[in-house]
Amino acid sequence: MAAAAATLPLLHPPVPKPATQQLHALPLPTRLHPKTHPPPLPLLFLLPRRRRGGPIAASPTATSSSTSASASASPAYDAREAEAAVAELLRESGASPADADAIAARAPAYAAMLADGVLELDELGLWASWSSGAGARVGRGGAVEMEMGRLGFRRKVYLMGRSRRDHGVVPLLESVGVRLSSAKLIAPYVAAAGLPVLIDRVKFLKEMLFSSSDCATIIGRNAKRMMTHLSIPADDALQSTLSFFEKMEARYGGVSMLGHGDVSFPYLIESFPMLLLCSEDNHLKPLIDFLEYIGIPKPRIASVLLLFPPIILSDIENDIKPRIHEWEKAGIEQEYIGRMLLKYPWILSTGVIENYRRILSFFNRKKISGTVLGIAAKSWPHTLGCSTKRMNSILELFDDLGISKKMVVPVITSSPQLLLRKPNEFLQIVFFFREMGFDEETVGKILCRSPEIFASNMENTLKKKIDFLVDFGVSKHHLPRIIRKYPEILLLDINHTLLPRMNYLLEVGLSKKDVRSMIFRFSPLLGYSIELVMKPKLDFLLRSMKKPLKAVVEYPRYFSYSLEGKIKPRFRILQSKNIECSLTDMLAKNNELFAEEYLGTGGLLQKPLP
């Protein structure tokens, strides 16, 4: 047997076929929330600009002696001087020397903007005009042209920076990745907090939201799912969140990068600048404690906040607790509310809460108990963001397949994600089965038995399993019988379930033809655990019962019977009477028939002989 197994090639995972990327439309934008998208403020000081970004170079036609001297300097030297001037401005605004140097090094556009202003004034000889405007704010008056001509480039950049009066907030925002244009608009809103406070707050927010990368993949996947399944009008909080996601989608990696701070934090601040005004001690820390209290594990709190940032801006007593109370009134226990928040933080949106009431009314009209909606929401809270129009279209398709109202309940409670399907996606699955020769009644029975099939992906799940079975040698003619008997086979993972079981049967000495025959006769075979079912039962068959391996080929249903509850007791009865029989005769009969034939009694075999 071992030699035979050694010569048989094992199966290997199929090469995945490239899937066509699906594009999902976002809801149409509505009005923006005034807290998260304030109207732009006029800038305090703006000079015409010749260029943006790039190395800072001195103009060869500068009129003052200082710029003539700096013209001979290299661009790298000018950039370092401008960076040093920015660091000095930051220190003057209260930043520590280490923070000032680090921020200045990551704010090249801000330094270039100041340097451009200096070089333009040098070139055009407009320092006198500057002194009467922005320069007056830093105390530069009198014979400005002569005085400025004696100053070095670094000093001029420093004075230019002081004249802007952004108190170091703009370079701070640029240093965390915010675009310079956005940083200049945000700075007036938050500058009053003070640079040292804002530096500490930025550090706290990044630590709070991005300290763990374990959930980054889950965050991105859930963000896509939440956007895809939202089919109700977005309220202000949802709209600002969707706008944030749209900004992420516009860059490489999209919302999949939501859990990566270097990528998403700048967009988060641009979308929700008021986060910088949230006190750590009075707001952020109490919020974290409250979320932990309602059952969200601390490492997962970042996931909830990134998927719905308006929570961070919400007041615990006036906003969050009343909305949680709404779900408690709907019959959702607090322990489930924490789990629902992990999957779907948008349950704290007023729009989703209002939609729940619409869905409940819709279920009542359909004569479906509100309890069903509660069960569905606990396992798939995304259904709470689904419109009743979409739900109704799916229920109508259920009716077309002959699904009674009585059977709709177990279908929805076992696979509530079906309510989120678009009609054309559901019909694709129906047509898939119709093409295999099933009538509508049989398709309806498959839906009732395994509704999850109709929520799966056509290309990546269903067709992939069919192709795998055909590649193994299963006849297309036999596929309808295999699927009718065990439709769940379409949901089994190829690499973790189907391949290991097939390889195990090949390793013990069966041929591919034998395995194909067993699948045709008893397709649930591929769903049994190797260690818990196949191996112990096969060992008992070969070692204790002394039957050939071919016996399971003729009767693969053998693996479906309990080893301790049926196989061993019946074998011992037959062994005690020296009776030899096939596995079919031994196991296929019920207790009464078995007792009548092998024990000579007409009564039910209540307890097997020892």
From TrEMBL:
Lineage: superkingdom: Eukaryota
Region (Disordered): 55-76
GO biological process terms held by the UniProt record: DNA-templated transcription termination
Ranges annotated as biased composition (Low complexity): 57-76
Entry-linked Gene3D superfamilies: Transcription termination factor 3, mitochondrial (1.25.70.10)
Assigned keywords, A-Z: Transcription, Transcription regulation, Transcription termination, Transit peptide
SMART domains assigned: Mterf (SM00733)
GO molecular-function term, one example from the UniProt record: nucleic acid binding
Entries under InterPro entries matching the protein: MTERF (IPR003690), MTERF_sf (IPR038538)
Similarity comment: Belongs to the mTERF family.
PANTHER family hit by this protein: CGI-12 PROTEIN-RELATED, TRANSCRIPTION TERMINATION FACTOR MTERF9, CHLOROPLASTIC
Protein's name according to its UniProt entry: Transcription termination factor MTERF2, chloroplastic
